[in-house]
Every structure is written in C-alpha cells, then in structure tokens.
Amino acid sequence: MDKQKKINDEINKYEAAKKPLLKQSQLYSWLRIFSIFASLALAIYADQSKRSFGFCLAFLFLVLFLCLVVKHNELKLKLRRIDAKLTVLKRLSARFHEEWRKEECDSVCSSDDSVAYDLDLLGAGSLYAYLNFCATPFGKKRLTALLKGEDGEITAIKKRQEAVKELLAHEKLLLDYESGSVMFAQDSRRIKEQDMEALIAYGAKQTKLFSSWFTWFSLLCACLCVLCLILAVFHVLAYGYAASLLLINLIISILINGSSHEELALSKDMARILKDYDILFECMEKEALNSELLCELQQTMHEAKQSLKSFHRILDIILMRSNVISYFILAALIQFDVLCVRLLEGWRAKYGVQMKEWLKAAGEMEALVSLSVTAQVKESWCFPTFVENDAPLLEVSDGYHPLLPYEKAVANSLQLESATMIITGSNMSGKTTFLRTLGIAVMMAKAGAPVCAKQMRLTLMQVYTSMRVKDDVKEGISTFYAELLRIRQMMDATKQKGQMLVLIDEIFKGTNSADRLLCAKTAITKLHQPHVITIVSTHDFELCDLQEDPKLKAINAHFSEYYINDEIHFDYQIKEGRCTSTNAKELMRLAGIV
After folding, report:
1. Parent domain of 405
2. Sheet containing 500-504: order of strands
3. What pTM does this model have?
4. Going edge to edge, which strands form the sheet with 412-417?
5. CA-to-CA separations, 58 to 61, 64, 470, in angstroms, rounded
6. Are 587 and 568 in contact (CB under 8 A)?
7. Are 417 and 128 in contact (CB under 8 A)?
8. Can you give the CATH number for the domain in which 447 is found?
9. Total domain count for the chain?
10. Among 105, 158, 371, 373, which has the minimal tally of Cβ within 10 Å of its Cβ?
11. What pLDDT score does 192 carry?
C-alpha cells in the first residue's frame, strides 16, 4: 500500500474515533454539573424538611458525581492519547511534502562542525529536524550524537540496526511511543538538560538531612505521643501528658520546617518529570521483543516503572504537607517532616543512582524510534550492510537524498573501492546534491538507521567534507584559506590510516583558475591513499586529466543538462566520463542578465 495513503487512512480512522468520544465527554460534563447541583439541592431540601431520606439521596448523587469525575478523567486521557497519535501521524504525513520544514527545531548546528554543517545533519531543515520525534533531553542528545557519527563501533551499529528493524515490525509500539513523546513534550514544559541533570544529582544524593540520633529521637517522641493519647482516651493518663508531647513535636517540626521543606520541594519537581516518563515506560511493558538492545531497554524501563510506583506512594504522603490543617495535626502527632524525609531518603538510597539509566533508556528508545522515520515514510529504503574489507568500500544502488520529496528525488548508483573520483558538470546539474546524498547515507548507516537506497554496502569509515566553506573576518581568514585548512585536516587524518570518505565540493573555488588547478591537483594527489575514497566536484575540466596519472587513475563522472524548445532541463543522473558542456550563459539568459 502507498505509505502516504496508509498514514492518511490512519488519520481518518482516529479522527472518526475521536468524534463520539467528544460527544461522550460533553455528556459527562453536563451529568457532572447536574449531579453536584442535585446533591446540593437535596441536601438543602433534607435540611429544611428534616427528612433523612433526602440526605441519603444527596449522598448518592455525590457518589455519582465522584464516579463521573473518575470516568470523565479516563475519557479525557483516552482523547489525549488519540490527539497525540493524530499529532504523530500528521507530522509523518508532513514528511511527504515540505511542510515538515515549518516545524520548530531545537537543534543548532555550528559551522565549526564541518560534516554536520555541510551535510545538513543538524539545525533547521536538517536530517535531525526530519527524523526527530524525541521530546526528552536525553533523547534529543542521543539522536544528535548518533547523526554525528558518535558511538560508531560496528557492534553497536548492528545492535541499533536490529533494534530499528524490529521496531518497524511493531507498528503499534512505534505509534504508541511516538505519541508518548508528544504527551511528554506537552507535560514537561520544555525541561532543559541542565535542569534534568540537577534533578538526577538530587535523586542520586546519598547524604542524610537528619542525623541518626535525631531520627531515633523523633521516632521515640512520636511513639510516646501516640501511646499517651491512647492511654488518655482510656483514662489511664491525664491528657496533659499527651498535650505536652504534642507541643514538643510541633515545636520541633516548626524548627526543622525550613530545611525539610527545601528538601521535599525538590522531590515534587523530580516526581513531575518522572510522572511524564511513566508514559514512555508504560509503552514498553507488554511488548514481546527479541532484539538485544530492545530487550535491554525494556528490562531497564520495566524496573523503572516498578520503582516509580513506590516513589509515587511516597509522594502522595509528602503531598499531605500541602494541606495546612492535616500538616499541623501530623506534625504535632508524629513529626511528619522527619517521616517524609526518611521515606524519600530510603527510596533514593535504593533507586536514586539508577534514575539516570532509566531516563537514558527512554532517550535511547526515542532515538531508535526517530531513526525508523525514513522507513515509515519512504517507499524505497534498505538497511545497509557493513562489510570487512582491507580497502574502503562504498556501494550504493539507487540512492537518493532523504530531505527531498520522494517523487522529486532522483536516484543514482555508485561503486567505489579505495578510489578517487572527479565529478564535473554544469551549474545546478546535481553535483552537490549527489555528494550530500552519499555523505548522509554513510552517516545514517553509522547511526544504525535505514538509508534511502535500494541497496548499500560499505566499510566502516570516517566522513570528511569541504562544501560550505566560509571566510572568517574576525580571524582574517579568506574562503580559500579556510578551505586549505579543511583539506589540511583531511590530510592529517589520513596519517591515522583509518578508512575515510572525503567529499569536496567545487574544490578551491575561492581563488583564480591557475592557482586552483595547481592546488587541486596537489591536494587530490596527497589524498589519494589506499585507505581513502575521495570524491571531488569541480568546474575545471582539466582535473579530469588526472585519469591519465598512473598513480591516481582517477575515475571521471559527470552531470549534464539538455535543452527542449530552447529551455534548459536537468536529469540529475550521474554518467561516466568527463563533462563536455557548460550552461553559464544560458542561466544568465534565464536570469535576465543577458
């Protein structure tokens, strides 16, 4: 089935399911209003008429009101989940057009990170913006790291590949987790990473607010107070003893209130965030999973879910401090603050150090879900195969740029092994897009994501780029010199003997033709090494002569234009050999310059 149609059908299905629930929600609202007013009216009537039967009916309507509140809240949660799924599906639908570029992107890309900047991996309108369905700080950070090629060990890559493959077979889990992230984003009020780190540090804190002797003293006072009250009720002791102990407990509670309040207030912030994570943990509980990474994440999140149940019970107790009357009663009776602090410290001692791993697991899952987006919306995709080979290998069959609409993207194929390729071609013919297509495919492969191609085989290699080179007025660096520094960095990297893919767009365009040719030939010759694949695009046809150099045996390829009724057209298909045409004059004519 056409994927766009499938997603649109899902949108229609959830929209249809939402309509009767909205009507039901409205009905609940009217019934709640009716039941509470009926309860009040009957209570007033019973009081005026002195008929106890009216009080019974008033109580029944009050119970009905409370039941309606519970059922209505359940219905609201159901509606909220449907709305979250609709948000996800509409975002996926936007990937078929250019609408996704209008979405807010929290990723920033610095020009200092040349690969991410040149290949549009991060920032507005980037691969990150296209794939991102993360809401948690750890998820966003993890997705960023993966797209930048971090954690690029072959074992880790294959584990992620297997995890994403299995996720694609669990469409319900994918949608549930994506919608869970949407709900998290709505609840979390844009939690910043530094705020999260502060709360994690608080959760893992093992120091105790009160000393052991003070805790035991507090427990003794509480036990004596309760005992005296019981004895006073049975007229064994006078109430004065109990009153004295109540006063002592209350004074102690007031004295420690400042320090304990600060400690317990942080627990509420921690609880709010962890409650938001509950939505994500819940998605994983009932799924039968097989891949190693998903099973690890599921186990971690299951432990988190169980541990948080006890934490929320403790929080319910702590929240009793919010009511002034109940707080003073409990403070006088059992020094309530000491009890709350000890319960919280006990939970932190047992689970606090694990909290960061729980949140990282949820973030890892978000990143994996995001890596699957390409396969969810593209008709043609594959999981690349990593091979062991002494020389760098890159084979792409019908690869295309993931950020272009599928119907507009033109697929190209390439097969290189430890080689240098010179790509020539006229302006706007597709040279730069082709280089970015290759670079993005390799970076996605290293992340563990499916790539936009029918087939892809490659060795594990580092990617180096020189495309969007800028001058730096502050540092007094020209565009030409900035590019020299980029290429020098590539040359230094070759000394490590690790396999590399080097992508250079319009080499040394910032200088005159004579110097450009000299510098380009020198740079290409130095980069041509057994562990490097170098692909260079240029307008200088003379560089095609490097094919005759016995040391390089450079491969020539080109993109070209064609004309219909005196109008320029491009097929964006890479072809063998050097380019023999130019189109600058024609483009000037189309621009109205000549």
Report:
1. 385-590
2. 462-466, 500-504, 532-538, 420-425, 555-559, 575-576
3. 0.87
4. 385-386, 455-458, 393-399, 412-417
5. 5, 10, 77
6. yes
7. no
8. 3.40.50.300
9. 3
10. 158
11. 65
Upper half-sphere CA count for residue 10 (Cβ side, 13 Å): 22
- Tell me: do 203 and 349 sit in the same domain: yes
Long-range contacts of 475-479 (CB under 8 A, 24+ apart): 478/510, 479/509, 479/510
Same domain for 63 and 155?
no
> Which residue in this structure is represented by tokens 């909290």?
355
- CA 303, CA 291: separation in Å to the nearest integer? 18
Element (H, E) at 532: strand 532-538
264-285 tens-digit pLDDT = 777 777 777 777 788 888 888 8
357 plus 439 within the same structural domain: no
- The owner of tokens 């045996």 is 553
Secondary structure of 383-428 in the HEC alphabet? CCEECCCCCCEEEEEEECCCCCCCCCCCCEEEEEECCEEEEEECCC
Q: pLDDT for 24-53, tens place per residue?
A: 999 999 999 999 898 888 888 877 876 777
- Backbone φ and ψ for 564, nearest 5 degrees, come out as -130, 125
Q: Are residues 305 and 392 in the same domain?
A: no
Alpha helices (H) in 290-389, listed in sequence order: 292-318, 324-334, 336-351, 355-371, 373-377
User: Residue 471 has what pLDDT?
Assistant: 61
| End-of-domain residue from the set 62, 94, 126 | 94
428 φ, ψ to 5°? Answer: 65, 15
Q: Is residue 430 part of a domain?
A: yes
Dihedral over Cα of 523, 526, 532, 535: its sign: positive
Residue 100 lies in a domain: no
Q: Chain-wide mean pLDDT for the chain? A: 87
Of 99, 81, 80, residue with least CA distance to 90: 99
Together in a domain, 174 and 271? yes
Beta carbons of 127 and 402 less than 8 angstroms apart: yes
What would the DSSP string read from start to end of 111-158?
Answer: TTSHHHHHTT-SSTTSHHHHH----SHHHHHHHHHHHTT-S--HHHHH
